[in-house]
Amino acid sequence: MGASVLEKSMVKRLSGTFPQAVFILENKRGGWKARDSAS
Q1: Residue 23 in contact with residue 34, Cβ under 8 Å?
Q2: What average pLDDT score do residues 3-17 get?
Q3: Are 34 and 27 in contact (CB under 8 A)?
Q4: Does the global pTM surpass 0.90?
Q5: Res 16 pLDDT > 80
Q6: DSSP alpha helices (H): ranges in 1-39?
Q7: Among 3-7, 18-22, 30-34, which is the least confidently predicted range?
Q8: CA 4 centroid distance within chain
Q9: CB-CB neighbours of 36 under 10 Å
Q10: Is the pLDDT of residue 5 over 80?
């Protein structure tokens, strides 16, 4: 669970440069997570 914090900060940094790539990554790992943050 501790990795989720690091993950979030990484996603935050990535989303600034590659929002599309982040969305695809989230979709691959857990579609429900990507859909949740998208809504």
Answers
A1: yes
A2: 76
A3: yes
A4: no
A5: no
A6: 3-17, 19-29, 31-38
A7: 30-34
A8: 10
A9: 10
A10: yes
Question: What tokens were used for 14?
Answer: 């990535």
Element counts in the chain: helices (H) and strands (E):
3, 0
Interatomic CA distance for residues 14 and 11, integer angstroms? 5
Span 16-28, mean pLDDT? 74
Q: Which residue has the tokens 């943050």?
A: 37
> Which tokens go with 7?
């993950």
SS3 22: helix
Burial of 17 (0-12, 13-18, 19+ CB in 10 A): exposed
